Amino acid sequence: MQRWSSTIAVGRLAAAGAALFAALAAPMVDAQAAVPVYGYEIKRSYPHDPQAFTQGLLFQNGILYESTGLNGRSSVRKVALETGKVLLKTDIPQQFFGEGITAVGNVIIGLTWTSQTGFIFDSETLQLKQTFSYPGEGWALATDGERLYMSDGTAYIRVLDPKTMQQTRRIRVTADGEPVTQINELEWVEGQIYANIWQTDKIARIDPFSGRVLGWIDLSGLAAKAGIEAGSDNVLNGIAYDSAKRRLFVTGKLWPKLFEIELKRK
What are phi and psi of 98, to 5 degrees? Predict the structure, then answer.
């Protein structure tokens, strides 16, 4: 009888030890798990100006807003989503290379690449209201409604106060513990920052607090579906989100099409 009880006790200790080891090991496995990758399904495609060197994209109140780059060709514009028709456009002086935009209240805020100058436009008329300055390069902007998020091509995203345009903190973006650079066009999507990684087919889904990449969106093949051969200039760039209807739009520089896509976990 004593031998039977001892056997049971040993068995229980072994089982408890195995369970404890599994519990301790599980977080380690999770911490080392690969960042999930999402593919896409095209829901709809829309016409897009093939001369637009897309730098920024956003969707607000049924209107697509877009900023374009290149010296002498930079602009901020309102676009009809269904037709791709430019409804209203304000050209940026030719000495400036236009970059990303975002909307805050009744204004559109835009950056320039190396001029350290930003512009604030009236969202209805696109008339220039004022300018502001910032150090370093400007690549893209997004907002969560309270703060601005600004990329500058590095592994850091600046967090700005939209009232003063002053930096309040920085987010270091990492994937699997390694810094992610070339962060370009940004969009706020349901609590995450979506970011084009320049000259790749990837969009990073970034936690705005830790900076950790929570997922990759692989848009390989989308350029071909737009009817172009990918090159150094006509790369994927431009993310817009319709929060009312939960629609995600993407396009690229000089692309003749803009796509509404749905993400699919690989």
Answer: -65, 145
Distance between CA 42 and CA 258 in Å, rounded?
10
Give me the DSSP letters along 8-31.
HHHHHHHHHHHHHHHHHHHHHHHH
Instruction: Tell me the backbone φ, ψ of residue 160, rounded to 5 degrees.
Output: -120, 150
Q: Where are the beta strands (DSSP E) in 14-139?
A: 37-47, 54-60, 63-68, 75-79, 86-91, 98-104, 107-112, 117-122, 128-133
Q: What is the model's pTM?
A: 0.86
Q: By three-state DSSP, how is residue 222 classified?
A: helix
> Residue 34: what pLDDT?
85
For the chain, give the mean pLDDT.
Answer: 89
Tell me the CA distances in angstroms from 145 to 142, 205, 208, one per residue in order: 9, 18, 13
Percent of the chain residues past pLDDT 90, beyond the cut: 83
Contacts of 5 by beta carbon, 8 Å cutoff, 6+ apart: none
Higher pLDDT, 80 or 8: 80
Q: d(Cα 195, Cα 150) in Å, to the nearest integer? A: 11
% of the chain beyond a pLDDT of 70: 86
